[in-house]
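# nightly structure sweep
# worker-07 picked up a monomer target from the shared queue
# config: single-sequence mode, recycle default, output format = structure tokens
# input follows
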Amino acid sequence: MGGARNLAAFMEEFSNRELRPSSPVVYGFNHRARPSPRGGSAKKNGRDQALGRSRGGLSTKIHAATIDENCAVALHLTPGQAHDGRQFETLYESLDADNVLESAALDRGYDADRIRERLALDGIEPVIPPISTRSQKLHYDKERYRERNQVERFFNKIKNFRRIATRYDKLRKTFFAAVYLCASFLIAKIR
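# output follows
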């Protein structure tokens, strides 16, 4: 009988309580999308992994200075959305000082007055077709520009390695090491 008496006392106490409306959202159990709690915190191994969004999704750009279709003398990685022209200085600075260039065949992404001035300052003829929005059309040697396809052939050969074409590696340093390994394989293959 003690159990029934306790139940009756509980029911009497519960009926005297004032009922409050429940909150519309129970935090932590809602289905709405929201930012990660980590937000802008530092990622493992740093933020810069040379991954960036472009039209095709997550991608990485490989910038290369080549002698021919098998030999790259300078390589550089950037996220997919990075502009080519902004990477010229780092790529140009990484070239060996002993390399004597007569001309530099670059694509339209490198058409900027500062790039042309830098090449002219070092005595190198810039072979860059002007972009369509340039007000003053500049002259370039079309015969020398045809030799630029060797760079495109280099990229074609390096992307025959599936690891490079699909970027299996998450980290920048491991992907860059794979790019260097494939580029050195191309050099060793021709000798």
